Amino acid sequence: MKNDNCSNIQRPAAQQPPHSHDLSPGQSQALTRHEFYPLVLTDRAQKRRAARFLARLRRAVLPAALLLVAASVAIATTSSMSATLESADAPDKNSFGFLRLISPKKAFYVGEIVPVELKACFRAGVELRVDGLPRLNGDAFTMNKLGDQPERSQQVIGAVPYTVFSWSTAITAVKAGDYELSVEIPTTVTVRQQVQRPRARTRDPFGDSFFDDVLNDEFFANFFGAATQKQVALSSQPGTVKILSLPAETRPPSFSGAVGTFDLTAEAAPIQTAVGDPVTLKLRITGSGNFDRVNAPAFEKTVAWKPYKPSAKFESEDSAGYTGTKTFEQALVPTQAGNLEIPAIVFSFFDPETKLYVTRTTTPLSIEVVPGQTASPATPPTAPAPDSPTVPAPATATSPDMVPNKLTPAVFTAALRPWFFNPWLAMSALVLAVAVIFTLRLVRRQQKLARDPHRARLAEARHAVQAQLRIMEGAVSQGAVAEFFAAARGAFQSQLGLRWGLPPQTITLAEINVRMNGEAEGFRFILELADEVTYTGRTFAAADLQKWFKIVNTELKKLETQ
């Protein structure tokens, strides 16, 4: 009976399974249990293997892919940039960075210098390279020189982390009128374009579209997407400022252009001297303002004093050159003796805070001058009487000023032989002549080489490269990553500047990519790494720096021989 029941559901292996409507209820239940269940198990095993494969793939690429995802999200809209002028509002969340110019005032006077602060804020995780220093837009202001190493910090603005680079500097108004004040900084941004994987039209080997869904999601699309670089000038939002002219009605005659707040002191040394000996007059002007427009107060020539051109020295108390002391030293030579007086010195400036001209005056300085040392007049010789004949004094052997005549003649020679017939003297003269000619030719050759501009640039470039290599060696021993890559960048810039006839500091990665035409792959990555170390603070071990030092040496030798 048992065998009969089994025979009802068994069939040959080559026979196709019957359709469900051709089977009885008992047969349909038996087919589902004994034939379709192994197929379900196979499908589940394939999916489990696929899931394990994807898990291993995610673990392998997750560290690098997370950075790329953050970068692609941050720069999804690269054309959208935000900037602010003297504002602390949160920037646009779709921007990759913004620039701020922080100024304490919006109204200036011509010649007035104002300390400002520049802040370049870049979203953390963005693949970005700064191609230069911030610069002013327009010609109504001039800006003091910025340092190559700005202050770097991490800040959270609007719940978004930013890397902030700060410069403290000062701007000077140069012409009157209403103008827009803004700054910009050139940057290069790496944008990753998402590449969608086309869905397969044929049936997936695993039985569904699981791989299509995974490989087309944002994680893998950002990781395998193509990267392009875009040069973008990040600009601050323009702010309207007003530049006023200095009042002309109340301008004193001693005003020479100084704008700010200053004090004046004077001293002279020595206070006792002689006629013709110089006295040093030292004037110190301290305060805050535009010291470039602070000139030495005029000291006119008088009957008692002869002045000489003064020297100037400025000592700044801040990085912007806004506060400090300017010292003038002037030599004064007295032309007569007596209790002389150095007259009062007058210095005028315009104070932009009070909007008035201010005049500072020193007190007169007393100098005691004695007559100078003079030579005593020589006693004139006494002329002899006309009637008294001159009788020579007899020469004696004991006279200290006279010796007796030599009566014994010297030894005579039969003939005088010319010196050039002497072989030793002739040889000496010939050697001397050859040495002089050789020295002259060597000097002329050195002068000719010194006048050759190409050789001068070559020598200067080699000297600069060697200096940078020495800095790199010291950085390797000290583990100074930033100094190492800064020196590496300088070495490549010096070598390329020699080749292209450009100042080394003006050579950027964009210039290298255009001129080298694909031949810079050997060292382009080093320059990109130097920018990354400068602006992201990446670090390397000492062993890695030693390897990079060998690579830099090799690439520099290739550039020199090309």
Keywords for this entry:
562 residues, alpha+beta, Immunoglobulin-like, 7-stranded mixed β-sheet, 10 helices, 22 strands
How are the SSEs placed, and which strands pair?
Layout: H1 2-7, H2 25-74, E1 84-85, E2 97-102, E3 107-109, E4 113-123, E5 128-130, E6 135-137, E7 141-143, E8 151-157, E9 160-173, E10 177-193, H3 210-215, H4 218-224, E11 226-235, E12 239-244, E13 255-269, E14 272-274, E15 279-289, E16 305-307, E17 311-316, E18 323-334, E19 338-342, E20 346-351, E21 356-361, E22 365-370, H5 423-451, H6 453-478, H7 481-500, H8 509-516, H9 521-536, H10 542-561
Parallel strand pairs: 1-2, 3-12, 13-20, 14-22
Antiparallel strand pairs: 2-4, 4-9, 5-10, 6-10, 7-9, 8-9, 10-11, 10-12, 13-15, 15-18, 16-18, 17-18, 19-22, 20-21
Helix pairs in contact: 2-4, 6-7, 6-10, 7-9, 7-10
